[in-house]
Amino acid sequence: METRYSRLASRTMAFVLAGGRGSRLKELTDNRAKPAVYFGGKTRIVDFALSNALNSGIRKMAVATQYKAHSLIRHCQRGWNFFRAERNEYLDILPASQRVAENKWYLGTADAVTQNIDIVDSYDVDYVLILAGDHIYKMDYEVMLRQHVESGADVTVGCLTVTRAEASAFGVMAVDETGRITDFVEKPADPPTMPGDPAHCLASMGIYVFDWKFLRDLLMRDAEDPNSHHDFGGDLIPQIVKNGKAVAHRFTDSCVKDRPDAPAYWRDVGTVDAFWKANIDLTDFTPDLNLWDRNWPIWTYSESVPPAKFIHDEEDRRGSAVSSMVSGGCIISGTEVRNSLLFTMVHSNSYSVLDHAVVLPYVTVGRHARLSNVVIDRGVVIPQGLVVGEDPDEDRKWFRVSEGGITLITQKMLDERAKHL
């Protein structure tokens, strides 16, 4: 097959859908969209989709935003401003901005692309890669692009292998022996299984590859359909499965690993429990997600901060961290930190204990605080002597306690608590 360039990525635009709130993260998304939520000590969730695209060779990207987008837009402007138009590189931020009609925001995932057709046209690309901006994983999209071209598909859908029990939370593919999708069902009670493997199913990752000409025509027709919800998973993909050629791409074929025995890592950190666990898992001796892999780095905005500092070395007042990740700018002053992840510029004071804590940037922990199994939102000031994680009933009076027993602490909750004490 003749191609203009050796890498299909150079003829592809990545369109990142980053407009969702992520309401299951509760108060963590009160002031920011889910893709802008912090992850892994210094990155944001959206950095994974953008870094995968960049590392795959894609230099034309757009990020569609909608819900409380300021934090996300500011992050992209600060951390992803290295693209140069003179080198044919772009990263456009596309807020829902009433471009079509004064009362019309993005109505669905497909409509977010429809409203920006003229911008995609201006990129002069052959392929469009649709990405969800709210998952944690490493993937070489060039592999998926090649499969799309070689199979002659109208759409190629990125798929995870999940158990039947897990599958009811996803859009699930039924495929034939060649990988062609024969049915697509959203969150089925009785999901179709993989050929020859009745214990597992193929679940949609929310990643799609299209020829742009094909997708453009499809979007124009969908926009005129009064019965459509203008959604890829709900409307466009089932339509192609029925009337065209949809092919499944297995994540295991393109997932990026730092060692052969590593699992195919993909996480939806969409609940407080999942968010806490994925962050705490990074403190393992050999974490399943390797943030130290320089061959496939996760790019982000890096603040200019001093190194972390640990001070005091007395009994019960020793600045220490064991099996933990501590980011730049942190001052661990006489605090015992265990199995925890501390983001940038966390300051903790003497006689305190942080155990299995995920502490977002710019948090201050007062003296004699004991915090375990917690997520602490950005900028929170923990008062002296606060104990969380030892008495769930007491914690529930003031804070958000998840189904898994993780306590979410925000400044608003602490302020409300202070009024009643």
UniProtKB/TrEMBL annotation:
One Pfam family per UniProt: NTP_transferase
PROSITE patterns tied to this protein: ADP_GLC_PYROPHOSPH_1, ADP_GLC_PYROPHOSPH_2, ADP_GLC_PYROPHOSPH_3
- Per the record, where is site Could play a key role in the communication between the regulatory and the substrate sites? 66, 105
GO terms classed as biological process: glycogen biosynthetic process
Instruction: Tell me where on the tree of life, at the top rank, the source sits.
Output: Bacteria
Q: Which UniProt keywords apply?
A: ATP-binding, Carbohydrate metabolism, Glycogen biosynthesis, Glycogen metabolism, Nucleotide-binding, Nucleotidyltransferase, Transferase
Using the record's annotation, list all stretches that form the Nucleotidyl transferase domain: 14-283
EC numbers listed for it are 2.7.7.27
One annotated GO molecular function is: glucose-1-phosphate adenylyltransferase activity
TM ranges: none
Q: What class of enzyme is it?
A: transferase
**Location of the Glucose-1-phosphate adenylyltransferase/Bifunctional protein GlmU-like C-terminal hexapeptide domain:** 306-409
Transcription regulation found in the keyword field: no
**Could you tell me which pathway this protein works in?**
Glycan biosynthesis; glycogen biosynthesis
Q: Which residues bind alpha-D-glucose 1-phosphate?
A: 106, 171, 186-187, 204
Annotated catalysed reactions = alpha-D-glucose 1-phosphate + ATP + H(+) = ADP-alpha-D-glucose + diphosphate
Record text on subunit structure and interactions: Homotetramer.
The record's PANTHER family line, in alphabetical order, gives: GLUCOSE-1-PHOSPHATE ADENYLYLTRANSFERASE, GLUCOSE-1-PHOSPHATE ADENYLYLTRANSFERASE-RELATED
Q: Which HAMAP family match?
A: GlgC
Q: What's this chain's function?
A: Involved in the biosynthesis of ADP-glucose, a building block required for the elongation reactions to produce glycogen. Catalyzes the reaction between ATP and alpha-D-glucose 1-phosphate (G1P) to produce pyrophosphate and ADP-Glc.
User: Which family does the record assign?
Assistant: Belongs to the bacterial/plant glucose-1-phosphate adenylyltransferase family.
List the protein's name: Glucose-1-phosphate adenylyltransferase
Native species? Rhodovulum adriaticum (Rhodopseudomonas adriatica)
